[in-house]
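quick q for whoever's on today - can somebody do inverse folding on this one?? i tried earlier but teh output was garbage lol. tokens:
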């Protein structure tokens, strides 16, 4: 087993913090924040794999997979992933698949926490304070809005990068020595699948107004399906998308096809 000694510094982690700020500048529907996440880690990956173009290309490609998280907490995931990439660069026996598994497992829980606290609470509080002063003609209104919302955000960006890297390094050393890495990876993958299942039920809404029978005895097909399993139609649609993606169907065609099929089904009263 070959090992090397490539070490990230505090300067590297600070650089990752600065590069985490434009996280959503390249957001899009197919993979959302994946380019921002890759940009955040690019300098670190260049330092770790710069002497091997194939490993550098593989690392960059690895982080071009789907990523979405509350921006202020994305640097925390970045810090943990940076520590894992450091381990991978120094140990050829490191399981690279664990990097994306950990990233996927952290996205959902941290997004739930971040969206609730930062977007659902802090942003509303900042708007309330700023608006109340601005309506009185007070110049402090917009200033306080920007300060109340952005100062905690910037602090979370910075502390997330630093603490994420520290936690990742210490945590990985402990679980590797204790032999718990395989169990932890299984638990992380399971959590990721559960989060995807929950998101499917919450974000993919498919219903039908069709009925079975006529007159007062008619039964709504949607009620029957919900009686079998709530969200059954949504799950079926997601299963169809999964199969199409397995067959390498372009996401652009899926979006266009979904729009066209939705219009036709709505027009004929198949979907509501």
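ok took a stab at it. sequence:
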């Amino acid at each position: 087993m070959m090992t090397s000694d490539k070490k990230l510094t505090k300067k590297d982690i600070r650089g990752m913090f600065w590069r985490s700020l434009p996280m959503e500048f390249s957001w899009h529907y197919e993979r959302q924040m994946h380019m921002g996440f890759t940009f955040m880690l690019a300098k670190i990956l260049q330092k770790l794999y710069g002497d091997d173009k194939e490993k550098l290309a593989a690392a960059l490609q690895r982080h071009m997979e789907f990523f979405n998280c509350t921006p202020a907490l994305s640097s925390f995931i970045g810090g943990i992933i940076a520590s894992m990439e450091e381990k991978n660069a120094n140990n050829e026996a490191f399981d690279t698949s664990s990097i994306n598994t950990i990233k996927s497992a952290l996205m959902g829980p941290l997004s739930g926490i971040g969206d609730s606290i930062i977007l659902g609470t802090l942003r509303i509080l900042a708007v309330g304070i700023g608006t109340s002063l601005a309506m009185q003609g007070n110049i402090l209104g917009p200033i306080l809005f920007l300060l109340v919302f952005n100062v905690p955000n910037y602090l979370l960006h910075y502390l997330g990068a630093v603490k994420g890297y520290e936690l990742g390094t210490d945590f990985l050393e402990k679980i590797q020595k204790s032999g718990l890495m395989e169990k932890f990876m299984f638990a992380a993958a399971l959590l990721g699948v559960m989060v995807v299942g929950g998101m499917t039920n919450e974000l993919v809404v498919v219903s039908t107004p069709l009925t079975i029978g006529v007159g007062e005895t008619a039964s709504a097909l949607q009620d029957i399906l919900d009686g079998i399993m709530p969200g059954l139609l949504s799950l079926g649609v997601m299963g169809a998308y999964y199969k199409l993606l397995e067959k390498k169907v372009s996401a652009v065609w899926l979006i266009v096809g979904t729009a066209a099929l939705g219009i036709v089904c709505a027009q004929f009263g198949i979907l509501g």
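fwiw Residues 42 and 60 are 7 Å apart (CA to CA). also The chain has ten helices and two strands. so keep that in mind when u check it
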